[in-house]
Write a structure and sequence with these properties.
Radius of gyration: 19 Å
Distance between the termini: 34 Å
Number of strands: 2
Number of domains: 1
CATH architecture: Orthogonal Bundle
Helix content: 55-70%
Order of helices and strands: HHHEHHEHHHHHHHH
Strand order of the largest sheet: 1-2
Low-confidence stretches: none
Oligomer: single chain
Mean pLDDT: 93
CATH topology: Catalytic domain of cyclic nucleotide phosphodiesterase 4b2b
Strand content: under 5%
């Protein structure tokens, strides 16, 4: 697929490493959706999430998971507000509370990896299977602190559960179709936001380390995970179109309105990653890591993992 945007502008779309820049982009979009929305409560959540990651949240160690890092949360946060904007433009207009619920759920969806100082062992990846309910518990304990309504605990819990890949939406007791839609927006953003990262394939090396620590997935080595990622992509695509009713397609309306280009740049980026992955896994396994060149991630992985990097 081709587009008319310069490569630097495309890179900036997915460059969400700077929290101040991410917050600025999000608030600009929110103002176009809900110009009267008071973002004080959302900002309180945002600041506490930053504290959890940088180690300044009282009683908690910094979140150390190498894949589910702050950049991942900001990627999902940014994708969620863009998707909110696209849904809103489609005519399915969202009210202030619905917008705020999505923003808060996106910010909190992975805080279950955080560990209190009394339980700090490992990176937090050992909580992989239960990180969603742990995050929900953290949310429920802090709604009052963030000056958010206590009545939000139920919808936020349901929306956050939509980021659990093992969770079927049909088993969740949504109070109405609107909350289900918000869950689909956040669940879709979690999948699309991370897989569109230009360094997604490299970051899979870090994901392997998390899975190994959690004893999750039964991957023989990193090469096994990379091969199975191709199958995982098909599963994700089916989930986006099925469980989440294809709401990710509304990202095209965001880009058409905001940037003047009628394309889903997230899906284009994911497809480029998959095409490159297909190229990598046709080579001899000894060559795979040398093909993953971005940000020095492969070198860091090899230093940490040792034998796990060997076919």
């Amino acid at each position: 697929m081709e587009h008319d945007l310069p490569s630097a502008e495309i890179r900036d779309l997915f460059a969400n490493g700077n929290p101040a820049d991410a917050w600025k982009k999000v608030t600009q979009l929110v103002q176009s959706i809900s110009p009267n929305l008071d973002l004080t409560g959302v900002r309180n959540v945002f600041d506490d999430v930053l504290r959890l990651f940088n180690g300044s949240y009282s009683g908690y160690s910094s979140i150390q998971t190498p894949y589910h890092d702050l950049r991942h949360t900001l990627d999902v946060f940014m994708c969620a507000v863009r998707l909110l904007h696209g849904v809103h433009l489609s005519g399915n207009r969202l009210n202030d509370e619905e917008v705020a619920l999505v923003l808060v759920a996106a910010l909190l969806h992975d805080v279950g990896y955080a560990q209190q100082t009394s339980e700090a062992e490992g990176s937090g990846a050992q909580h992989t299977r239960i990180h969603v309910p742990r995050g929900i518990a953290f949310m429920e304990q802090n709604l009052g602190k963030w000056h958010l309504p206590s009545s939000w605990n139920v919808p936020l819990a349901l929306i956050m559960r939509c980021t659990d890949l093992g969770q079927k939406l049909s088993s969740l007791d949504f109070p109405d179709q609107r909350i289900r839609l918000l869950g689909q927006i956040v669940g879709s953003s979690d999948m699309v936001g991370q897989m569109a990262d230009r360094a997604y394939l490299e970051k899979l090396l870090f994901l392997y380390l998390e899975f190994k620590e959690a004893d999750f997935g039964n991957f023989q080595n990193i090469h096994d995970l990379l091969k199975k990622t191709r199958i995982f992509y098909e599963f994700i695509y089916a989930t986006l179109e099925g469980e989440f009713d294809g709401v990710h397609h509304y990202l095209s309306q965001h880009f058409k309105n905001w940037m003047g280009i009628d394309k889903n740049l997230y899906i284009e980026s994911i497809e480029r990653n998959v095409v490159y992955l297909d190229k990598v896994i046709t080579l001899n396994e000894a060559e795979w890591l040398s093909m993953l060149k971005r940000h020095g991630i492969a070198q860091t992985f090899q230093q940490i993992s040792g034998a796990d990097a060997t076919p």
